[in-house]
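A note from the maintainers: we've had questions about how concatenated examples are separated. There is no special marker in the raw files; a new sequence line simply starts the next protein. For clarity in this README we add a label.
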Amino acid sequence: MKYITKSPESQEVFRKNPLKREFWIIGKKLTNKYKDVSSSLTMKIFISIVTILLIASGFIGIIIPGLPASPLIFLGAITYGFGFGFERIGATIYIILGILTAVSLTIDYLGSVLGAKKLGASKFGIIGAILGLFIGFIIGSIWGLLIGPFVGAFLGESIRRKRPKESLKAGLGATLGFMGGFLLRFPICLVMIILIVWGILK
C-alpha cells in the first residue's frame, strides 16, 4: 500500500491489528490533504497581499509622483491572475488595462516633451526635459519630478547658448507639460483600479 510505512516493526503491528492499520492510513491521507490545502491557501494569501501592495503603491503614485502608477496597477492585476487565474478578471479587462497603461506612460512622456516644444524649446531642450524627468524619477521625490524637466530643458537650451529668458521659458513649458500629464493620468489610473475590482467581484 502507498501509505504503509516501511518499518518492519510497524508492519508487524498492522498485521496483528488491521483496525489500527486502517486508522493510520486514513490519518495519513488527511495529513497529506491538509498539507496540499495549506500550501495552496498560503500561496493565495501571499498573492493577495502582493496584489494589494502593488495596486496600493500605484494608487499612491497617482497622488505622489515618483512611483510609476499605471504600471504598478497593471502589474498588480497580472499578479492576481497568476494566483487566481486570468479568467477571473477576464481577457477583455486585461487588454483595456494594457492599453490604459500605455496611454498613461505616453502622456507622462509627451507631457514634458511637447510642453517644452510648445514654448519654443529646441531638440536640446526636449532632450534635456526627458533626461531631467528621468533623473527626477530616479530621485523619487515630487520635487525631483517637478524640477527635473525644468532644469533639464533649461540646461539643454543653455548648450545652444540661447538667452536665459528663452531657456527659462522652455523649462517652464516642460514643467507645465508634466503637470498636465499628471492631471490626465489621475482618471486613467482610477479607471484601471475600478476595472480590476469589478473584474474580481463580478
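[label: protein 2]
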Amino acid sequence: MVVGGTVTLAGALDLAAAPALVAMARHFGTSAESQLFSQIVMTLPAAMLVIAASVYFFVVNKKPAEPPVVINEPESNTGITPEINQIVKMIGMKQEELKTLAAGQPELYRQFSNDLDQLDSSYNALKSELNETPNQELLLEAMIQNLQLQLNVLNQQLNIINQIKQSKKYSHEKKDQSI
C-alpha cells in the first residue's frame, strides 16, 4: 500500500506474498494436501513474527529501576502452572505421535522439527526472562500463547501427514481398481 509516496509494510507484504503463493501452487500442485502445506508455509512465518515480537517486547520493556520479583519457576502462580504443565504434556504426546507417523517421510519430519525448534527456542527465551521481568503475568501469558501455538502447529503437521497418507492410500486403491 502506498501512502504519501511511501510503501507501507502491509502493502509490501501483499506484494511479496502474491508471487510466492503462485510459485508454491505451481511447485506443489493443486491437490488438497499441497494447498494445505502451502498455507502452512505462508502462515508459519507470521506466527514466528508474533512470537519474536512478544520476546522483543518483554526484553525491551524491562524496568531495571524496580527490583524484580524472583521466583524459581511459575509454581508460585498456581493458577497458571497447571495450564503450562498440561500443554507441555500434550505437546510431548503430539511430538511422539508425529515421530511415529512421519517415520516414512524423514525430510518432511525434519522440516516440521525445524519449525517447532524455532517456537521452542522462543519459549525458552521467554522462560529465561521469567525471573528477571517485573511483569511476570504478561510473560507467563506469552509463554502459554507460545505453547498453544506449538500445539496448533503440531496438530496442523499431524493433519498434513494424515492427509498425505490418505492420499497415497486412495491413489493405491485407484491403481488396484484399474488393474
